[in-house]
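Local shape tokens

___
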Amino acid sequence: MNTAPRAGSTPAAPRQARELLRVAFGPSLVALVVIAAVVLLQLVIANSDMTGALGAIASMWLGVHQVPVSIAGSALGVMPLLPALAMVYGTARTTAAAVTHTSWFVTRWVVASALGGPLLIAALCLAVIHDAASVLTQLQTPDASRAFASVLTVHLLGAALGVGSRLGRRLIRPPLPAWLPDAFRAAAVGVLALTALSAAVVAGSLVVHWSTMHDLYSITDSLFGQLSLTVLSLLYLPNVVVGAAAVAVGSSAHVGLATFSAFTVLGGDVPALPVLAAAPTPPLGPVWVALLIVGAVSGVALGQQCARRALPPVQALAKVLVAAALGAAAMALLGYAGGGRLGNFGDVKVDQATFGPAVFVWFAGIGALTAAMSGGFAPRVRKPRPAPPAEDLDDDLESPDTVVLPPESIDAAPVPEPPAEPPAEPAEPRGQQKPVREAFGPADIEDFADPEDHFVADDDMRSDRDGTTH
């Protein structure tokens, strides 16, 4: 049997090695190239030398993974969510492309590569920042444990999404329920619906507060400055959307001393970022209370997704609750990642004590009601009882507990009585015999009148045998 590879085909080992390298360093290197281009462009436009360029690139790469950056004693903990989400998407896509079959050996190597490569780059970035901080006193080295934890979390989420999208239901093994993938899908639909509707609310609010946004753009007269503000607004747009989602489900968002919720607004100083013009201004009108419809619609989307496969009531309710818990955990994670310290403005965050529980209540309550109304709760099917055997039926009829209906309740024709039998003759006492005359009739006695007529001689028998007559 010929086992040589065909012409034009790639051997398995080198191909798998290239796939593992792509998974390990592909998204991270792409991010490094983009960051380097932006930093170099900034330095060229500012007519500055290249001193500290490597430290800035390394700091921005860690900032993409939500690692706080400290410059000149001022902490920048609120990092934009858009680059982190792009990194999660890139890791998930490369991981899914590398997992081509269900071999656990290959899957473990793919996941290890997706985590090991970024951790190695994170260690190199920390070393570069530490070396640059010795030259640039304004640059400070971030906390190593926080840096490794953030990088690991971002790429672990991407690897999990990639492997889950490729293998799907094959990962579910007992005692895990078979409906668990449907719960993950329903949670994703609920989160996407909540964020999409919140983004639509942010867009509408920006249109309403167009004059405020124009005033924020007027802080700079240069085209490059306005372009930089636009890019920053796009990068921080997911952060604002998460804050709008917190307001929509009944929680609150905070920017320093300013507090925003669907019921009250407390003013305060906010950064001069055009996208923050979407924040409501006091006095609060009734239109912001209508934001609660966003949470209800998101719960309906989750419930409809759960109702696609009908289950018994207990399992269907468990699926809705698990999907609601997963969706609430995802939104709470986004709220935590989108917040942090913003220099002199204070903390930018959502109220974590109420944000996750509020999302869970909307998803679980409205989702369960929608799933029940959409046919997601399958009715219980009662199995017919088998007929009892014939012996058991006879025993039941002969048992003393059997209820016999009265004759007048039975509408049936009367049964005819059988004919009466003649009376039996009395039995003869033992030891007595009837006389011959009583035992035989007169004709029988005449047959015994001449006994010689009934005798047969030997000669008669011989003649009959020889055919002669005597």
